[in-house]
Amino acid sequence: MLNLAYDDEQQAVAEMTRDLGSEVLSPAAATTEQQKAVGDEAWQALHSTGLTTLLSEDLGGDGIPSAVTQMIAVEQLAHGDPQATIAAVWSGAAAFFVSQHASPAQRATLREAGIGSVAQRGSVALYEADGTDELTTTVEVAGDRVRVRGRKVAVPFAERANTMVVVGREQSSGDLVGVVVPAGREGVSVAPSSGALALDAAELGVVDLDMDVPVDQLLERDGFAVSVARHRLTLAAVQTGMAQRAIEYAGDYGSQRIAFGKPIVSFQGISFLLADALTRTEQARLEILDAASKIDAGSAAEDVLFAVGGAVAYASENAAETTRNAVQVLGGHGFMTEYPVENWYRIAAYLSTFDFDPYASAFQPVF
Amino acid sequence: MSPTTFELSPELEKYGQQLREWSTREVRSRARAADTTKQTPEDWEAILDTCPVPLGRPDKEGDERPTFEEGYWLAQLVYYENLCYGDLWALPLLSAGIGHLVVDEMGTAAQREKWYDSAMRGESVGAFALTEPHFGSDTSQVATTAVRDGDEWVLNGSKIYCTQGAVADWITVFATTDKSLGAAGIACFIVEAGTPGFSVPKPNESKLGIRNWPTSELLFENCRVPLENRLGWNSKGPDDDTGMVSGQRGALAALSNNRPNMSAMAVGVAQASIDIATELLEARREKMSPRRWDAVSNDLRRMNVALDRARRINFNAGVDIDTGAPSRRTPAMAKAYAPQTCDRIIRRCMQLLGPEGASKDLLLEKWYRDVKIADIFEGSSQVQRIIIAREVVGRLAG
After folding, report:
1. Do B359 and A194 count as a contact with CB atoms less than 8 A apart?
2. What class is the B255-393 domain?
C-alpha cells in the first residue's frame, strides 16, 4: 500500500535535524565558508546525530538507520548548511561502508583505530571525471593480492582521511568492489589542489591510485553496489535541502523588498520562479524518498541504481537552477558575499558536476 | 540575390578574430590573478599596449577603433564578445560604461561636449550611480535628494553597486529634486571626483564574480555641484535647447542601448567555456564509451547552436540601435536570452568535464561566477520580459 507518512522516529529525526540545522549549522555557515573548515561545534553537533557518520553497534556506533531516515536527516541538515553537512556526510560514508561490508578481521582493526570517532575523517573515493556510470578504476584480484589502479576526483579529506575506501570495478566479473586503503597509503598519491568553485571545507582532492594490497583489504561484495547507490543518494538529499532553504530565503527577501509599490513577490515574474522551484524541489524530495524506500525494501540492485541515478540528476539540476533563481530574486544583493545565496549558487553547481549523467537530460537554452 | 546576410564584413570579422586571439593569449593569462587578488593587474596599460588592433582607449593616440560599415553599435557587439572571450577583467578599462550615454541622452550641447565627447575620446572615465540600498529595478524610488541653493545643487544620499565609482573622473548621480513628483522629480547630476562632500566608503564590494571590477558604494553629504552640472541645465537654469528628458527616462534609455553589449560579454565567456570543454573532452574521448561521447558531443552542438541564436538576436538589436529604431524591444530580447542561457552553458560545460571542470585550474568556475551579473545589472531578465511584453500589449503588462 502506498504510504508517504513518516513514522514516529522519522518525524522526530526530521524535527531534530531541522532544529540543529537552523540553530547550530546555519549560524556557523559563514564562518565555515571563510575558514574553509567546519568548526568544532558544528562538526560535533553533526557527528552527535549519528546520522552523518553511520556506524554499526559492534563498531561502537548507534547502528545503521534506514535509507529513508538517513535521507530525511541529510536533507534537513543541509537546509541549515549544505557545506558542513556534505563534509560530514562524506567523511562519515567510510564508516558506513565498513559497517556494512567489512570482514570481522577488518572490523577489529578499524575499531581499534577508532573508525567513526568524532576526531577522525573518513573518505570514499568514488567519483571520476566521467560520472559514476562508467567507472574506470580497476580492482583486480590475483591470488592473495589486489591491484587497484585508477584516478579519482573530488575525494573528500583526500590528504588526511584516517580511513579511505576506494570504489572500483573488477574487469572479470564487472562487479563494483570496495577496497579499504591500508595505513601508510602506499600507492596513493594526492595531487596538490588549487581549490574549486565551492566546498573548501570538504578538502576535496584528486587521487591517483596504483596500489598492490593484501586481498583482505577487499570489502564484501554482497550488496556493495546498493551501498554505493545509497552513498550517491546523499548528494541528492543535500542538493534538495539547500534548494528548499534557498526558496525560503528568496521568498522572505522578496516579501520585504518593495518595488513599484508592492513586495516584489507579488509580481508573477518573481512568484512563478519560486513556485516552479518549490514544485521541482518537492518532486526531487519524493524521487529521493522513492529511491531510498527501494533500498530499504531490498529491491533489485538494478532497480535501485535506476532510481538513484534519476534522483541524483533531477535533484542536482533543480538545485542549480533554484539557487540561481534565488540569486536572481535578490538581484544585486544576491551577488554579494554578505548574503548566503551566492554560496548556495556555487555549491549547487559544483555538486552538480560530481555525478553527472549526460544521458539524463539534454542542454536547454532559457527559451 | 537577396541582400540578407548574417555574415560580418571581412574587416569586422578580421578585427574580431585578431582581438580574440590577443585576448585569449594576454587577457586570459591574467584572469586568475585578477579574480584572486580582486585587483586589475598593475601593468594593465602595458598589457593592453600589446594588442595588435586598436582597442579604442580614448587617452591613447592612434588607438581609435576603426569604423566598420556595419555601424558603431553592431561593431561594439563584436568587440565585447571577442574581448571577453579571453576574460572580462579588462572590460572596465576599455568600456566607457554607461555614464556618458546618460549625458548623450539628457545633456545640453555644452554638457555633451564636456563629458560625453571626452569619454568617447577616452579622456575621461564616467560612471553611473542609480541603485540605492532599498531599490534596484524600481528606479522611481530614488531617495538621494538634490536641493537648489543659489547657484548650486546640494546632494545628500548614498548609492551602491556603482561600477567604477571609486576610479571614475565623474559620475552621473540620479537624485530627486521633488519627492512629491515621484519619477518625474528625478534629475541627473554630474559629480566630479574630488568634489567636497562626495566620498567612497566602500571602493569594492565582496562579490560572487567580476571581483576586480570596482563596484563602489558612494556617499553624498551636502555635496555641492554647480547648476550646470544638472543635465539639461546651464548656469542660469533649464536649457531650452534640450528635450527635457526626465532623469528616470534618461537612465533607462542609457541602460537600454548597452543591453546587447552585456549579452555579447556573456556570449564571449560562454563560447570560451564551450571551446575549452570541447578540447578537453575530445582529448579523453578514447576513454569514453561511444554512447557517452554521443551524448557529450550532442550537448556541445546544442550549446553552440544556442550561442548562435544569442548572436543573431544581439546583432538584430545592434542594427536597431544603429539605425535609430526607437524600440527597446530588441535590446531587451537580447538581454533576456543570452545571460541566463550562458550561465547554463558554462554550468553544463563544467558538468560534462566532471568536478575538475569546476576547479580553479580552469577558468570555467570563474566565468560561472562572473556571468551571473549579466542577468542582474542594467536590468534583470524579469525586467526585460516586462519591456518585451509591453511591446505586445502596452502598459497592461507588469
Report:
1. yes
2. mainly alpha
